[in-house]
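## Example record

The block below lists the input lines for one assembly entry, exactly as stored, with component labels intact.
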Amino acid sequence: MYRKTLDKLQVLTIAFEKLLNKVFSQQYNPFYYHGAVPNLFMWTLFVTGLLLFAYYQPTLDSAYISVNYISTKIPFGGVVRGMHRYAADAMMITVVLHALRVYFTDRYRKYRWIAWYSGVALFLCMFVIGITGYILVWDERSYMITLMMTDALKAIPLVGTSLAGLFINGEVITHYTMAMSFFLHVGISFFLLYLLWLHYLRISRPATDVPLGLGLLLMATIIIPAGLIPVVSGKPAVLTETPKEFPVDWFYLWIFPLFSNIPAMVVWTIVFIAVAILLLVPFLIVDEQKSPATVSLDNCVGCTLCAKDCPYEAIYMVPRTDHPKYKQLAIVIDARCAECGLCVGACAFKAIDLPQKHSKEIIAKIGDVLKEPITV
Amino acid sequence: MTQQNKKKKKVLGIVCERSVDLKKHIKNNKLKDKDNVAIVEMVCSGMIQPIMIEEGFKQGADGVFVMGCQIGDCHFREGNKWCQDRLLGLRPPNIKKAVDKNKVRGYWLAKCDYKKFMEKVSKFEEDLNNLPAPEAAKAAVT
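Predicted structure tokens for the full assembly:
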């Protein structure tokens, strides 16, 4: 049942992408770069963040003023700030689409589990970066979400108080709170790079760049709104007044409406269960065990073609001394092998094969199939 | 034109099991709608060795087509790209020069493209019938 639904979703996804092919052409279809698109936005965030970093002051007194200074006084400061915000939103949308696409087309499990797990970690990190980013502005909303987050963290048994203390960097909100938010915002952004390395691990030639045309189009979708609808701060935060309402960013701050309506512990439990489900998803479907590709010692000539073609970095070459002529031998890392047979296609010497679908069998089958007479 | 051959051409299709969904349309390894088209399914079009295409001709096929998913959308990331490059002679191992490239086709279609697939196969048959007597010509891979 679960499987059938997924199969249907896969056909739907592919049909949808075919539609997009008509608009964008196959070469520029954003869905064929579903991983590279969030990556583009992430680098936009890094670059615009770096520019904002030059003028931003992480203290209670000057955070709000410096952000406004960037927006109003610095040439194109408002555009850069807008790009930073809209790129973050765009990144969240495209990351979710990326995850759904990968899920619907069955590309998240087995040998891909590392990518899925690091993806979940990246996703969670994005929320921390997003929430702390909203604190840095230090308007009423920032103050409000700081208070709410502190209360929510305190509700966690055992570690809650210390977590809350860590979050605001002390017992109460001080200048150090801003320093901590700033640190989390920037520090975890750089931690993303480590997670991305894990995300790309086991993938040969990961598609991390979109074609120039598509890239320009996507940049336009954030630069134009950034120019037309500038991002502005709310009223400055005043520590003696607790604001009642604030505009919610549904991409990053959706958890706060939950906090105000449901007990914090329940929200945390929901989040915990959701993450647990995400981590279990790759193991919900179990396929029959197949066998990874095997190399025939006698046939391998060490031409490296299979190692070059392997899309999962599962084949590497080792020097060999047992053969008078051939200097290298291909070795398959079983845990990485996707049993896709690309190495078989690359081999002209019948040296590497999938035991369950041997190239000899296929060639024999081609003969059999063609021998059967045609009924006219 | 006297090339209205009544005799059906023998066509071999080596196809990726993840591209056009042929499971319902195959009987005894042949297409139900066209029983002169034999189908061999592969894990991925990237697994297709040039030897397999050559073997098809050796065993009496008049034409061989290869089918994979849409370029850009390989389940195993790069299989159809490699396969396309091999057909075009851009990636080793190459297909032997002796093989008439007019009799080889590559189709890159998605799971739900059965209709398009049948059109392409019919076109291929027509092309095979219209081929001049054995003479080498330039590669034509769609």
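Chain A touches chain B through 47 residues (CB under 8 Å). The longest strand of chain A covers residues 315-319.
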